[in-house]
C-alpha cells in the first residue's frame, strides 16, 4: 500500500535473454519518461506472464503473487 495513492504501483517484467535485470534502471527510465507518482514502487522479474486460453493477461494472478511476495 501507498500512503499517498492508496495502492503502490507494481509491475512484472519479462526481461529478454541476456538483458540485465536491474530494477533501479527501470525506475530511472520511468522517472525520465513519466510523472513521478506513476513510477512503479515494486518491480518483479518473471519468466512469463500468466495468460488465459484466449491470451488475455491474468492480472489477478499477478496481484496475488505480488501480495504473497510482500509477506
SSE layout and pairing:
Layout: E1 10-13, H1 23-33, E2 42-45, H2 59-69
Parallel strand pairs: 1-2
Mind explaining what this structure looks like?
This protein is α+β, with helices and mostly antiparallel strands and 71 residues long. The chain has a two-stranded parallel sheet. The mean pLDDT is 92. The protein has helices at residues 23-33, 59-69, and strands at 10-13, 42-45. The protein has two helices and two strands.
Query: Helical residue percent?
Result: 25-40%
Rounded average pLDDT: 92
Largest sheet features: 2 strands, parallel
List the secondary-structure elements in sequence, H or E.
EHEH
> CA-to-CA gap between the ends?
13 Å
Rg value: 13 Å
- Number of β-strand runs: 2
The total count of helices amounts to: 2
Low-confidence stretches: none
How large is the share of residues in beta strands?
Answer: 5-15%
Tell the overall outline: globular
Strand order of the largest sheet: 1-2
Q: What is the oligomeric state here?
A: single chain
What is the structural class?
A: alpha+beta
Question: What are the defining features of this structure?
Answer:
71 residues; alpha+beta; two-stranded parallel sheet; 2 strands; 31% helix; globular
Task: Give a brief outline of the structure.
The chain has helices spanning 23-33, 59-69, and strands spanning 10-13, 42-45. By secondary structure, the protein is of the alpha+beta class.
Amino acid at each position: 500500500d501507498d500512503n499517498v495513492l492508496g495502492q503502490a504501483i507494481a509491475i512484472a517484467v519479462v526481461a529478454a535473454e541476456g538483458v540485465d535485470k536491474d530494477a533501479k534502471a527501470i525506475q530511472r527510465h520511468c522517472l525520465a519518461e513519466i510523472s513521478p507518482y506513476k513510477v512503479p514502487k515494486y518491480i518483479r522479474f518473471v519468466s512469463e506472464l500468466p495468460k488465459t486460453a484466449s491470451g488475455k493477461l491474468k492480472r489477478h494472478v499477478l496481484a496475488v503473487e505480488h501480495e504473497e511476495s510482500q509477506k
